[in-house]
Fold:
Amino acid sequence: MDKFASVWAEDAVQDMPFSPEGFPKRVEGKANLIKHYAAWPETSGKANFIDELVFYPMQDATMVFAEWRGNVEIITTGRNYNQRYGGLFHVVDGKIELFREYYDPIVFKDAFGLD
Structure:
């Protein structure tokens, strides 16, 4: 989690426009992002987010779009979370200032037992 915390700018924002009801659509500030993801080590088992990771550079060198697949064992439900993502990143001086994350909320709800 220390490595995770190190990638965010102090005023970073994560937008999640397709988050299901009861989950935030936006998290503002590095401290709040760290808090938002704090339970991840206890929630997830084996995880892979890099096998299908593709970056799409943009004309503005501080912007990049990425696509990836996440495959995660969810400890709390015993289910597998197999999600396809898209994300827009704004990175300045090596720190993420904006992460706009797109994913399927139905897959999310199923994996985390919200169905």
The mean pLDDT is 96.
